[in-house]
Amino acid sequence: MFNHLRLSAWSTGVRSKLKGIPLRVELWNGERLDFSDGPPRVVIRVPDRSAIRYLVSPSLYNLGRAYVEGAIEVSGTATDMIAVVNALAAASVRPRGLFGRFMQSLPHTRARDAEAIRYHYDVSNEFYGAWLDPAMVYSCAYFENGDEDLATAQQKKIDHILTKIGLQPGHTLLDIGCGWGALVIRAAERYGARCVGITLSENQTRLARERVAQAGLENMVEIRLQDYRDVRGRFDRITSVGMFEHVGLRNLPAYFGTIHELLAPDGVAMNHGITTTDAHSRGTPYGGGEFINRYVFPHGELAHVGTVLRAMQEGGLEARDIENMRRHYARTCALWTENYEANADRIRLLTDPKRFRIWQVYLAGCQYAFEHDLISLYQIVCGKAGSSAQEHAWSRRYMYPC
């Protein structure tokens, strides 16, 4: 009875704060709670009384956890689901919690980082192939005109990066977090660079090596299963695309210091990664960060771009060019979400129901977060601080060849 009274009070409060959201809540006893006059686009089914606790404290973590664990059932498109739960959270709970800060206190050891990477990336190559582009580029695409398909935009992103760093034939290139090898293959094939790609994912290593062999580039591209902290040597160019989110806030100066040590005196590096828009580098609001920490990216941490630039300077690097690509990632996630839903039947055969639901809400949740400036993405081109930078162009015109 107490829980039911709390639910009634909560629904009254939500209606008073929101003009109407296309949501219906169906209770185990047949009762329905409608939150708008129109037809619902999202239906939450509460199968028993014990699940009420998730609704009366509807943070993104609580509702996400209840959905992926099967405590509640939700129907509707992933995009509509995410919009509704964000509206509920904003109307009902505080933006910030404490759990995200606890997660940030955990040290990033080699073993813990490798375990986290395996959890996220070693689902199966077939799983990722079902919703990524054919080259399997799992990072923000680049929409030069805004109307490109996903495969074209991902190719343009790789070329945009390689143009930004001024890659030339004969250069040595290190790609930290090389994924399935698309960037190093392109760098060798089109630009004539000698490349090393590193990843902590065994699945990525295996398929990337197969793709290098299929392209006939074994003499130009080496794929290693290796931690960035264990790389030795000097490289003319270094790229890190969608990897530094796993480094940890405390480790950022050391991470950039490692890039500094690996970079040739007149070399150029580029860091491409997701950032939080919270100036204090806290997690995304309403429990979204907690959900991702638990179910998607264990031990992942997002820094504000200001924190990134400070850590970069502390690591001995000078930022030379900074580009905000938030809108590009929102569009990328939208296309990933469309692919995921269009191939849902196939994807369900490639993984278990819980993981299917995790990724369903994660991709749509990221789309929402980028669209609403809760998170962002920056490409930062840098070189060694104090370098004469003779190879660096005077203007940005070289990045956009006619």
From TrEMBL:
Residues 17-88 form the DUF7884 domain. It comes from the Bacteria. The keyword Lipid metabolism applies. The keyword Transferase applies. Pfam families: CMAS, DUF7884. GO terms for biological process: lipid biosynthetic process; methylation. The active site is at C366. Belongs to the CFA/CMAS family. This is Class I SAM-dependent methyltransferase. It comes from Massilia cavernae.
